Amino acid sequence: VNTNYHGSLLNMAATNRVPGRVGQAMWFDGVNDYIAITNTLSLAVTNAITVDAWAWADSLDEASLWRALLT
Asked: Which of 48, 54, 57, 67 is most solvent-facing, going by the fewest CB within 10 Å?
C-alpha cells in the first residue's frame, strides 16, 4: 500500500475529522465537501479495480446517494 498520496480538503476543514470504525473518518455535510487527489500517472487505472467505501447517511435519498458517493 502506497501512503504517499494525501488529498486536499475542499469546502471543509481539518476539524471535520470524527471517530471512525478504524482510526479516524471525515464528516461531509452533504452539500459541497470533497477530498481531491492530484491526478498523477502512478495512480492511473490500467486494469479492473474494486472501489470500497464505508458511508453513514443521516437521511437516505436513494435517488442521489450513490451518485454522490461515486462522483
From this structure: 48
